[in-house]
Structure formats: C-alpha cells, structure tokens
Amino acid sequence: MSRWFIVAGIALLVIGLVLHFAPGLLQWFGKLPGDIHVRSERTQLFVPITSMIIVSIVLTILLNLFNR
Predict the structure, then answer these.
(1) What is the pLDDT of residue 26?
(2) Stretch 59-63: mean pLDDT
(3) What is the distance between the alpha carbons of residues 10 and 1, in angstroms, rounded to a whole number?
(4) 53: closest CA among 27, 37, 33, 26?
(5) What would the pLDDT profile of 8-60 be if each residue is shown by its tens digit?
(6) 8 Å CB contact between 32 and 52
(7) Is pLDDT larger for residue 4 or for residue 57?
(8) Statement: residue 3 has pLDDT above 90
(9) Which residues share a beta bridge with 46?
(10) What residue intervals traverse the membrane (predicted)?
(11) How far apart are CA 11 and CA 35, in angstroms?
(12) Rg from Cα positions in the chain
C-alpha cells in the first residue's frame, strides 16, 4: 500500500513540474477530436471523452506493468 502512495506522489510531482515549467506540453489535453465543449450564453458544458479514454489506456498500461 505504501508503494502506491509513493508512486502516486511521484506521479503528481512530475505532473506538477510539467505544468509549472512547460505548460505547452499539455495544451493538447481537452482539445482532441471527440471532446465535447458546448457554450451558451449562461452555461458551459465540457466533456473530454477522447482525452479521458487516452488517460484510461495509459493508466491501464502503467498499472499492468507495475503489477507484474
């Protein structure tokens, strides 16, 4: 259990450093074909379907590598 907390902490640290020092690397996230963004005068709806599928695939691969 503690190993997962360490891995999650390192992953959050890396993501935080990337967002702080190189924000341009993740500009594509949320702007892929299949991501739904609807704007009206009073409300906004944003559903990043394609981006979340990519995140799910990457996390599945990483978790399978760590569990073996």
Answers:
(1) 79
(2) 89
(3) 15
(4) 33
(5) 899 899 989 988 999 888 788 888 899 999 999 999 999 999 999 999 999 89
(6) no
(7) 57
(8) no
(9) 37
(10) 45-66
(11) 24
(12) 16
Among left, alpha and beta (phi > 0; psi -120 to 50; other), residue 13 is alpha
Round to whole Å and give the CA distance between 46 and 58: 22
Q: What residues have CB less than 8 Å from 19, skipping those under 6 apart?
A: 26
By CB neighbour count within 10 A (0-12 exposed, 13-18 middle, 19+ buried), where does 66 fall?
exposed
Could you tell me where the DSSP H helices lie in 1-68? 2-21, 49-67
Q: What distances in angstroms separate CA 7 from CA 48, 50, 57, 62, one per listed residue?
A: 25, 25, 18, 11
CA distance 52 to 59: 10
Per-residue tokens: 20: 């702080």
Look up residue 67 and give its two tokens: 């569990």
User: Tokens in use for 68?
Assistant: 């073996």
Q: What amino acid occupies position 26?
A: L
